[in-house]
Amino acid sequence: MPPVNAALRCANFEERRDRAMALFAEKGFGQVSMRELAAHVGLTAGSLYHHFPSKQDLLYDLIEEFYEELQATLDQGRRALARGTPVLPCLIAAHWQLHAERPLQFRLAERDFCCLSAAQQTRLGALRERYQTGLLRLVAPQSRLTGEALAATGHVLATLLNQLPGMLRERALSEAEGLALMESLVQGGIERTLG
């Protein structure tokens, strides 16, 4: 019987995190008080502090998870490379899928990153840079760019992969149309910049 209780606690915790994420995404992190957050997730304020020492810690946890998921998209690209299949379509499809599964985390990571402490921003910045560097190694391993130009290219490429799915879904494109357009836009940029 204990595993069921543990599983239930875990499910409740995930559900509460999802509710918190939805509230942050809807209102903006800075506009949500701990009292409002606690009520929204079905806890007392004191009980919420038991799970998360602060609102910032909760936001950090949500954004950190997002960067871990982005890192996992690179694993899919590596597997495609090992199979000898084109990497870019695989990465685009993985980002499209991740955006479909976690649109609120994309919004939080972009809009509310500035609400975190300097130390939290530094830790997440390192995760973001690791992701961007890995992305470039997969997509353009022979690039002639170096230094800041290469880092800026990685940032722009990651931004395209992370924002295009939301923009294209707003246009009511089918998945096939969206993926094809993303591939065309990203491939064109890569060929002109890194080719």
UniProtKB/TrEMBL annotation:
Domain HTH tetR-type span(s) in chain numbering: 10-70
A Pfam entry, by short name: TetR_N
Key words of the record: DNA-binding
Recorded GO MF terms: DNA binding
PROSITE patterns attached to this UniProt entry: HTH_TETR_1 (PS01081), HTH_TETR_2 (PS50977)
UniProt DNA-binding residue ranges: 33-52
Name of the molecule in the record: TetR/AcrR family transcriptional regulator
Species name: Pseudomonas xantholysinigenes
